[in-house]
Design a protein that fits this description.
This protein is α/β, with parallel strands linked by helices and about 525 residues long. The protein is built from 14 helices and 18 strands. α7 links the parallel β7 and β8. The radius of gyration is 23 Å and the shape is globular. The model has no long low-confidence stretch (mean pLDDT about 95). It binds alpha-D-glucopyranose (GLC).
Length: about 525
């Protein structure tokens, strides 16, 4: 891919999120190193089940290179009791034996780099596991040197220090700890105590963690719940109107920004444009924009209002306008996400493959950096998870179903022909498998590949301006342009056909239906069809 000017690589990159337990297993399941989430709903049933490993990811880098993505974000693979499937870290500088070893990680990075793919690690700074030695020490005694590494408050065991609610469980964000007779804060599960970033020792220790991974050649970080790390020392109640909303979706304290400026300097001191993309789970683009600072905080931030927008042209236009208005003046580069490991897949949300295909055209042609979630390129829908197979208290099992690599038993996963995978397969695993779709020119997978290839050759799509074009209701049309490269995108969000008069003769470069590619655009769009013209 040719660089546009002096832009850092991550501005133009398409990143592919690998949910590590569900991508692929390459090694035979090892009974001594099982993947058994601690405390998960129905956890007991998982003993002996098959989950992914780092070697499985390395063994499929060939696929990711063929698909045409630029970077891979690996969800947490650290040692962890897996109460939140790895987002509860018990050692920030190692690999969970269920997933492999540090040597496997190094081999993965080496091979990815050889193939021109960058690797992002998921860094979880807001909270650790309650089994992390830091917390074990902190909770052991009020006199512990690490007491102040977490957020403790004295008080009455019947009345939490404030009204903040936890996430994934209907409970306060505080747990009373008998041993020292005090409350500790957890914006998520009780097994995920919040670190106290107001303590400089915590910042120093966590900065060492960043260096540990940067020194191993890691290209960047996806930062978990980054807006959570700075807390108001007064711990004020949530306003009455939002008291029922988990505090993890509301915490937005000024002190986070100064921390981010210091972290930014650490990343920028490394060669090779290392970067951080933060999960800012505040459903306001104006608030998200502040986390870019003045090009001195996050390099990129996830902006989730579009992720929660329905399949509706006007609603999407409104979300895009917000992004242009809020991020534009800061020179901040937007990000776009349709699916991830925390929400229903967009094929399931939008209700049809035709829409999921049109959405792919949208995602890969908006102004900004797109993030794909593994399996969306296969058009996967959420798995139907029977009550006795549910493991996540947050109800997110469906989108985390394993990737079917091949038709037939085991779907290309080592050992899965004999013992079940930790979650059931998504619907139609044979027809949706990589192997089947790779050999079908009309497949969803091939559509993603054509879109990614087109982006690579088009400076306008990667880096150009975004300008809306007139379109009938229910249709979104825009032009991306840079110098003499110009592309027009039209997305039909409706179930009727539309005629779109164009002033210039343009040809269809990619259509979500595959119809008419390489020929002059007829001016007609099928229901739920999207096209890129040039
Ligand atoms: C983020 C992660 C989610 C996790 C939570 C707590 O939202 O994406 O999977 O459960 O943080 O770490």
């Amino acid at each position: 891919m040719t660089r546009v000017g002096s832009r850092p690589w991550w501005r133009d990159a398409v990143t592919y999120e690998v949910y590590v337990p569900s991508f692929r297993r390459a090694r035979p399941p090892d009974p001594d190193r099982p993947f058994v989430p601690f405390g998960a709903v129905n956890a007991g049933r998982l003993a002996g089940h098959v989950a992914g490993d780092l070697e499985g990811i390395r063994s499929r880098l060939e696929y990711l290179e063929w698909l045409g993505v630029d970077a891979v974000w690996l969800t947490p693979f650290y040692p962890s009791p897996l109460a939140d499937f790895g987002y509860d870290v018990s050692d920030y500088c190692d690999v969970n034996p269920a997933f492999g070893t540090l040597a496997d990680y190094d081999a993965l990075v080496d091979e990815a780099h050889r193939r021109g793919i960058r690797i992002l690690v998921d860094w979880v700074p807001n909270h650790s596991s309650d089994r992390h030695p830091w917390f074990v020490e902190s909770r052991s005694s009020r006199a512990s040197d690490r007491r102040d590494w977490y957020v403790w408050r004295d008080g009455d065991p019947d009345r939490p220090p404030n009204n903040w609610r936890a996430t994934f469980v209907d409970a306060p964000a505080w747990t009373w700890d008998e041993r020292t007779g005090a409350w500790y804060l957890h914006l998520f599960l009780p097994e995920q105590p919040d670190l106290n970033w107001a303590n400089p020792e915590v910042e120093a220790a966590m900065t060492d963690v960043l260096r540990f991974w940067l020194d191993r050649g890691t290209d960047g970080f996806r930062i978990d719940v980054v807006h959570g790390i700075g807390k108001d020392p007064a711990l004020p109640d949530a306003p009455a109107e939002t008291a029922a909303v988990p505090w993890s979706a509301q915490n937005d304290h000024e002190s986070t920004h100064a921390i981010l400026r210091r972290l930014r300097r650490v990343l920028d001191s490394y060669p090779g444009d290392r970067y951080m993309v933060g999960e800012v789970f505040l459903l306001s683009t104006a608030k998200v924009a502040r986390y870019y600072g003045h090009d001195d905080e996050l390099h990129l931030a996830f902006n989730f209002p579009p992720l929660f927008a329905p399949w509706d042209a006007e609603k999407w236009r409104e979300r895009i306008d917000r992004v242009e208005e809020e991020l534009g003046p800061r020179g901040a580069w937007p990000t776009w996400v349709l699916s991830n490991h925390d929400v229903k897949r967009h094929h399931t949300r939008y209700g049809s493959e035709a829409r999921a295909r049109a959405a792919a055209v949208l995602l890969l042609t908006l102004r900004g950096a797109p993030y794909l979630y593994m399996g969306e390129e296969l058009g996967l829908e959420d798995a139907v998870v029977p009550p006795n197979a549910v493991v996540d208290p947050g109800g997110r099992d469906g989108c985390r179903a394993p990737i079917p690599w091949a038709p037939g038993p085991g779907h290309g996963w080592e050992g899965a022909d004999r013992v079940p995978t930790w979650l059931p397969w998504p619907p139609d695993p044979d027809a949706r498998s990589v192997e089947v779709q790779r050999s079908d020119p009309g497949s969803m997978l091939q559509l993603y590949r054509r879109l990614l290839a087109l982006r690579r050759t088009s400076p306008a799509l990667r880096a150009g301006s975004w300008e809306p074009l007139p379109a009938p209701p229910g249709v979104l049309s825009y032009r991306r342009s840079l110098d003499d490269d110009s592309r027009v995108v039209i997305v039909n969000y409706t179930t009727s056909s539309h005629s779109i008069p164009l002033e210039e003769p343009l040809s269809v470069q990619v259509s979500s239906t595959g119809r008419g590619e390489g020929t002059r655009f007829s001016g007609r769009l099928d229901p739920d069809e999207a096209v890129v013209l040039g």
